[in-house]
Amino acid sequence: MFRSMWCAMALAVAALPAQAQESDTAKMREELRQLQQRLQQLERRLQETEAKSGKAEEAAQRAESTAAQAAAQASSRPQTESALNPGVSVILNGVYGNFSRDPNTYRLNGFVPTMGDVAAGRRGLSLGESELAFMSNIDHMFRGTLIASISPDNSSIDVEEGYIQTIGLSHGFTIKAGRFFSAVGYQNQIHAHAWDFADTPLAMKAFLGNQLNEDGIQFRWVAPTDLYFDVGVEFGRGRQFPSGVDRNKNGFGSTNFFTHLGGDLGQSIAWQTGLAHLRTSPQDRTFGDVDSAGTAVTNSFTGKSRLWVLDGVLKWSPNGNPTYNNFKLQGEYFRRNEDGNLTFDTAGAALTDGLSSRQSGWYLQGVYQFLPQWRFGYRYDRLDSGTTNVGLVNSGTLSAADFPILEAYQPKRHTAMIDWNPSEFSRIRLQFARDYSRLNQPDNQLLLQYIVSLGAHGAHRF
Amino acid sequence: MLAWPAGAALNVFACEPEWGALAQELGGDKVSVFSATTALQDPHRIEARPSLIARIRNADLLICSGSELEVGWLPLLLTQSGNDRIQLGSPGYLEASQYVVKLEIPKVIDRALGDIHPAGNPHIHLDPRNIAKVAEVLTGRLVELDHANADLYKTRADSFAKRWQSAIEGWATRAAALKGVPVVVYHKDMSYFINWSGMREAGALEPKPGIPPTPSHLAELVERMQRNPAKAIVYSPYNNPKAAEFLSERTKIPDVMLPYTVGGTEKAKDLFGLFDDTIDRLRATVK
C-alpha cells in the first residue's frame, strides 16, 4: 500500500511540471501572436510616416546643415564631467643606433663621472623613453603639470616633472613648486622630444648629469619693461648631480640664481640670453675609477661646487613667419669650480686630501629649415677639463695614474642631423656624430629616430 | 623703457591684427594696443618669444580669436606672464570666437585629418557681422575695466556700429557679384568670408589643414579644375604664393592675394579697408 501511495505521489509530482509546461506554451503562443500584431501595426505606421517624410526630405536636407551646425555648436562645450579632465599627451620615440665603440664604455675623460645616464644611446633598435604628460589649470590660482617617463626595459616610471605653478599672481611674479627642470642654461629646461638633436650637448652631460630636474621651489619675476627681463631663484633638494647623493637634511641642497634678457630685432629676429649660477655642496659624491694597479675603486668628493652657465638663442624667420624657412642659433658656455676633499678608495685605503678643479665647456649649434617640413643642423661641442689639483697626488701619497679619469683632456664632438617633420606632431631624424669623449678613442655614432606626440597640443618654449 | 605710453588708460594685447584694429576703433586714445602678430605671420605658428611675454605681462586686456588658433603659443605666454588680469576667466581675457556662430565644427576629430580645430574654424573675423558682435562684447569689457571712460567707449561704440552697419550694406551690394562664384583657397582661413558673400569653396591648396601643398595634391587639383574650373585662387599674405601661382599657370585660373587681416595689403589699413580691399580684389579677379 505504501508502495502504491509512493507511486501515485511520484506520478503526481512528475505530472505537475508537465501541466505547467503546457499552460506556459499556450501563454507564450498568445504573447507571440500579440507581438506579431503589434509589429504589423508598427510597420504600417512606419510606412505611412516614411511616405509623409519623403516630401519633407528636401527641406529637411536644407535645414540639416544648419541644424548640425547648431547641434555641434551646442555640443562643442562637453557637458560631462570628463570635460574637466586634464589635457593628456603622450610622446613616443624609437631609435636605431650604430656605434663604432661600445656605448657601455662611454665616459667623458677628464671629468668626474656624473650619476645620471649620459651614454649616447644603445646599439641596434630600441624603444626610447615614452613620456606621459598631464596638464591643466587647477583653479584660478594654480596650474598643474605632471610629466612621467616610462623606461622601456625595467618598466620603471620616473617623474620627470611634476609641479604646480601660480597663474593668479600679479606684478610679474610666478612661483613654481615640485619637481621641474631647473632654469640653469637654455636646453636644460626643454624636454627631450623638443630638442633639435637626439642627445644633449657634452657640456650638459659633464656639468648637469645630462639634464637637471630638482625637487624644489622657484620664484621668478618679469620686469615691466618692453625688453624682456626676468630674475629668479630656485631652492632645491639637491637630489642629483652635481649635488650628489640624496641627503637627509632639513635645509636646501642646491640654490640656483638666474636671469634672462630677450627681445626682437625688427620683425625677423628674436633673441634671448640667460645667465645662471648653481651652487651646491656635494657630500660623499661618489664615482668609480681604476687605480694604478688596475683595481676598480670608488672615490668620493665632499666640498663646494659652483657652476656658471651663460646661454644665448637667436631665431630668424622671414618677417617672423617660420612656416617655410627659419634658422635657430643656440649656444651655451658652462664653467664650474669645485673645491673640497677627495677620498680615494672609500671601501679600502680611504685616503683623504684636497681637490680643486676649474672646468669649462661650450657648444654652438645651428638648425635651418630649408623646406617646410625639412631641417638640417650642425652642432660643435667642446669641453676643457683644465688641470684637476689632487692633493693626494701633489703630496706624493698616490700618483696621477691612480686617477685616470681625472687626467686632463679636452673632449669634443661634431654632430650633423637632418629631420623630416610631416606635421607638428611627428619627426623623423637622422643624426651622425663623430665623438671624442673618450681619450684617444673617437666614436662614430649614427642614430635614426622617430619622435611623435599624441593628444593635447602642447605649447613649446621659445 | 616702460612698456606702454603713460597717457593711455588700458593696455590691450591683441593676438591678431584685426582685434588690435577693433580695439583701436573702440578705445581711441584711451587704449594702447599691441598686436602680437602681423598679417605676414601665420597665427597658428608663432613663437612664444620673450618680447611677447614682456608685453603680455603689462596687459590689462587680452583679445584673441581663440578656438585653439593660438594653442601653440598663447598658453605659454599666459603662464609666464605673472599677470592675473588677463588669465582665463578674468574680465581682461576675451576670446572673440566664443561670441559668434562658428563654422566647420568637425564631426570627426582625428589628427589624421590634419591640424583641425575641434571647436570650429577660428578665422571668424572675415564675416563682417562677426566684427559687429565682437565689438559689442569688447565695448562691454572696456567699460568694465576702465569705468572712468565708460561714456567715451559707449559713444565710440555707437559711432562704430553705425558706420559698420552702413559699410556692411555697401559691401553686401558689391559682393552680390561674388554670389555662387567658386574659389580655391590656400588654407581654410577664408571660410567666413566665403560663407558671408555666398561664394563657394571649390578646393584647398593644402591637402589637409596645416599640411603644406604637395605635388600630388596639386596635380589632383589641376585635374579637378580642368573638369570644374573655379573662378579664382586665393591666398593670404602669410602663405607662400608658389602653390597658387603653379595652379594658376596650369589652369589659367587667376590667382589673387587677399589681405586676410588688417595690414595684409596697403589698402587694408583698418577693418573697413580690409573688407573694401578683399571685395575689390575679388571682383577685379572674377569679372
- Strand arrangement in the largest pleated sheet of chain B: 2-1-3-4
Mean pLDDT of chain A: 87
Tell me about the largest β-sheet of chain B. Answer: 4 strands, parallel
| Biggest sheet architecture of chain A | 16 strands, antiparallel, barrel
Helix content of chain B: 40-55%
Question: Rg of chain A to the nearest angstrom?
Answer: 34 Å
Overall 3D form of chain B: globular
Uncertain segments of chain B of ≥5 residues (pLDDT<50)? none
Helical fraction of chain A: 10-25%
Structure, described:
Chain A is built from 3 helices and 19 strands. Chain A is α+β, with helices and mostly antiparallel strands. Chain A is elongated and about 110 Å long. The mean pLDDT of chain B is 93. Chain B has helices at residues 17-27, 50-57, 74-80, 128-145, 150-175, 191-197, 215-227, 242-251, 271-286; strands spanning 10-14, 31-35, 61-64, 93-95, 182-185, 200-204, 232-235, 255-257. Chain B starts with 9 loop residues before the first strand and ends with a helix. Chain B is α/β, with parallel strands linked by helices and 287 residues long. In chain B, β5, α6 (191-197) and β6 form a beta-alpha-beta unit. The chains are: A alpha+beta (462), B alpha/beta (287).
